[in-house]
Write a structure and sequence with these properties.
41% of the residues lie in helices and 13% in strands. The protein has helices spanning 34-45, 55-58, 62-73, 119-130, 144-150, 162-178, 209-212, 219-229, 238-251, 265-278, 284-293, 300-312; strands spanning 7-12, 52-54, 77-83, 87-90, 94-96, 156-159, 185-190, 201-204, 261-262, 296-297. Strand 3 and strand 4 (87-90) form a beta hairpin.
Length: 316
């Protein structure tokens, strides 16, 4: 067990929820004008009228199972969530189920159809404005700068997807520039990071999943989880953590690349219909996993469109 009384872990929200989402809380039903969308969205979440649930219990899926299991084993963790719908929130915040994301191919992408800005600028504008709102509960931290200021001696770990990291990068950059001497900040991320993030970067590679298991999409969360659960061996010393990751990485064999076979729309539609006959309750994402496990290739957005097309047709 770590000698630290508190450890802050910052993760991003996920699409899968444990409660049904009311149509008023789906970004896709709001104006394409980003400023108007923000005003109306904040007005709506400021006046909840559907069931409230703590954020930790709202999210679901493989990534979130890792988060919950880690918290259960490391009691010092205080979990904070980068929520596209609610901004920076603590995991005990009471919120409604919602559909909003920084994933740009999703129908509920917060910056969708914004013609005045590119995607990066839309994400930054949304994150800034949604955090100017007071938030769903009484915590004061509505920015990373505030979180850093109020927790100067606390290890802070970030394990965000690249899209979410990009969306909050200006906020995070401001926090780092205001507290440049932090030596207990850990940014778990795939690929490379620019300054001022580079010196806090704990590189994550898909090869690491050979050690920690799970699917490639959860490797960043699983890597952070493994470090949180083994804190006695590194005491959150940055150089030691880097060395632990590097040693594990170098000891693992390279990943074997996938060689999935492409299929035509007609072939995929036929397979979707056959799989839905076996289990009509399959979502498009669960069917895509089954489809890919059979050795076939299809981009997620294309598969979702074909899945929706099959649902609209009584037969193919």
């Amino acid at each position: 067990m770590s000698h630290h009384k508190k450890i802050i872990w910052v993760v991003n929200c996920v699409n899968r929820k444990t409660l049904e989402t009311h149509r008023e809380l789906s970004i896709s039903n709001y104006s394409s004008n980003l400023n108007l969308r923000l005003i109306n969205w904040i007005s709506r979440i400021s006046n909840p009228n559907s069931p409230l649930i703590d954020a930790l219990s709202l999210y679901a899926g493989d990534n979130w199972t890792v988060v919950k299991n880690t918290i259960a084993k490391v009691e010092q963790i205080e979990l904070w969530i980068v929520s596209a719908g609610y901004g920076l929130i603590r995991s005990d915040a009471e919120i409604e189920s919602y559909d909003a994301t920084f994933e740009r191919k999703d129908d509920n992408y917060v910056g969708k159809d914004d013609k005045k800005r590119d995607d990066y600028e839309s994400d930054q504008a949304w994150w800034l404005k949604v955090n100017e709102w007071k938030g769903p509960s009484s915590e004061t931290e509505r920015s990373f700068k505030s979180l850093f200021k109020n927790n100067p001696d606390t290890p802070i770990l970030f394990s965000l997807s690249r899209k979410y990291f990009s969306a909050v990068s200006t906020d995070l950059k401001s926090a780092i520039e205001n507290f440049p001497q932090r030596n207990n900040l850990f940014l778990f991320a795939t690929g490379k990071l620019p300054e001022p993030f580079k010196r806090f970067h704990i590189p994550v590679h898909a090869r690491y999943k050979k050690k920690i298991g799970g699917n490639p999409l959860s490797v960043t969360t699983r890597t952070a989880s493994a470090l949180l659960k083994s804190s006695e061996s590194h005491k959150f010393d940055f150089e030691t953590v880097q060395q632990v990751i590097m040693n594990d990485y170098e000891s693992l064999d390279p990943l074997v690349p996938y060689h999935r076979k492409p299929r035509s729309d007609e072939e995929i539609l036929k397979m979707i219909e056959e799989m839905k006959k076996v289990n009509p309750s399959h979502s498009h994402s669960s069917l895509l996993r089954v489809y890919r496990d059979q050795g076939y290739a299809c981009e997620q957005g294309r598969f979702r469109d074909l899945y929706n097309k099959s649902s609209e047709s009584p037969s193919i």
